[in-house]
Amino acid sequence: MSSLLSRYRLLLRDELPVILRPLTPDDRERITDAFRRLSPESMYFRFWTRVQGANPKFIERLCADDDGQHRTWVIVIENNDEIPGVGGGSYWRSDGSEDSAEVSFTVADEFQGQGVGTILLAVLWVEALESGIRQFVAYVLDENHVMLTWWASLGAAHERQPHGGWELTLRLDESLLPDTSAAGSLRRTMAGLRAASKAA
Ligand SMILES: CC(C)(COP(=O)(O)OP(=O)(O)OC[C@H]1O[C@@H](n2cnc3c(N)ncnc32)[C@H](O)[C@@H]1OP(=O)(O)O)[C@@H](O)C(=O)NCCC(=O)NCCS
């Protein structure tokens, strides 16, 4: 049983109020629309392809009921039909490994740099840890400087992939986080989520 709430009200760095909650099967249209609006560059960084719009089979997998193997959290603006989503992050338990999961994030272009990725990583970290996962792995293109810089400043290990790009590995152990601005933001966000859950 997760200690997390099913919904959090949060403020982004520019004070915009948002809702953080798990993705549900009812979000299919919202997610399809959100991926359709993503810039070619963000799409490429997320899916390693320049094809616009996410594959419908991928959306189905994403929205499928939680079977303990994957989880997706989204950040949305309440009562706003114009912006389908601010961002989303998922983890999928790695094949053949009980304590490792692949993680991925997509933040809408106009909301990047507002701490959305940090909130998503924080909630996935807290939840994954409670499910026995001890490390997140992310696959990142050479050109994705934001992701490479962000995870380097969280102390992630990086390993070159034979066909290009990097495998980044982040241990889910707060005591290993370095003394950087990104790690401080992550720590504070996790503490905030835990405190809000306790207070509820
Ligand atoms: C990578 C991505 C998820 C980051 O999300 P974000 O909401 O922009 O990230 P945040 O605002 O939480 O910033 C996290 C950290 O990244 C670094 N960062 C963010 N934007 C940056 C920029 N433009 N330049 C350099 N570093 C940056 C900072 O260290 C920051 O932490 P800090 O501000 O607390 O020091 C987002 O840019 C994105 O969706 N990109 C397109 C898809 C993608 O690349 N997905 C990842 C593949 S798995």
TrEMBL record:
Q: Which Pfam families match?
A: Acetyltransf_3
According to its UniProt entry, this protein's organism is Prosthecobacter vanneervenii
Gene3D superfamilies on file: 3.40.630.30
What highest taxon heads this organism's lineage? Bacteria
Residues of the N-acetyltransferase domain = 18-179
GO molecular function: any one?
A: acyltransferase activity, transferring groups other than amino-acyl groups
Q: Which UniProt keywords apply?
A: Transferase
Q: Which SUPFAM superfamilies match?
A: Acyl-CoA N-acyltransferases (Nat) (SSF55729)
Q: What is this protein called?
A: RimJ/RimL family protein N-acetyltransferase
